[in-house]
Amino acid sequence: MDEPKERSLPVRLRAPVAARRHEAFDLDELAVRARELGCKARKLSDDWPRAGLSLAAEVGRQAPWPGEGSTLGLWEILANLGAADLAVARAVEPHLDALAILHQAGRPRPEEGTTWGVFAAEGKDARLEARETADGWRLDGVKPWCSLAAEVSHAVVTAYTGASNRRAFAVRLQAPGVTSESSEWSPHGLRGIVSTPVRFDDVPAVPVGDDGWYLERAGFAWGGMGVAAVWYGGALGVARRLWSGYTSREPDQIGLMQLGAADLALGAARAVLAEAADDVDAGRAEADCGALLALRVRGVVADAVEQVLRTVDHALGPAPLAFDAEHAQRVADLRLYVRQHHAERDAATLGRSLLAAGTMPW
Question: Looking at CB atoms within 10 Å, which of 34, 106, 212, 325 has the fewest?
């Protein structure tokens, strides 16, 4: 694909009554710019990561904070980026999440021109430890799954301060002692969002919150639901290919059923995100309530994504996957991205949480 195709309607999680909480953005124009960057991502041009992160920095200067009255607007921005191009959204979302984490910790907005990631994954063969010295905190060890580590300037990184306690730290990734290790990153999806292990050798770091704060704060659940908003946008981008296929030719009864199935899945995802945004802004998504809500939201949206992928595959057959480069890339990107959801394991965690709450939820 060399040029973006026609513009699509801006993504709304709730129509017009809740719109325009984010007046700084023309969502249609934002989506077009994201698609233009997506072209660069698919070509894997040298300037793609830099251009994508430049958009992240621009959006970060104007996007609303979660939990402060405009969560719906924030998630609509993420959904629009996901619908336009998931690689672009995958570069922007962690930057916005990092800024929100720093904001929630009471830290000042980062310097203009900085770009951020969030490195909080754990691995059985990798461990990052933090120690306090007379000159401040230092990090040593390896952190796995660090996306765009060679491209972003800074990151919020979690590290162990004891046997099991973890704390978040702000780190400059160009500091001496930070090394992106070699990786066999070779996915079909999100090829431009390279994830590698990063080694830290006596690297200075600034604490962000106390021990345990990163996982215990309400914003942890909000960030997880923000990722689900990107998944929703990605599913919408795939479903639009189904719509274009069925508006150019008359569908049979099975085709009508497939179109309806996609709409039902997307409607469920949209509704749960809109309701959750209200809960976040109203203070009903704190502590255990927030964690429970995030499990529900991510589960519903992930199921919707998988329903849309399956429906569109069945409806359109192999031709778009073989001959439509944009559609094939969207599908590959979305399938990889949604695997951040732990599927049946997250459903089991939800069931355990419901029983622990002790109140029948329905």
Answer: 106
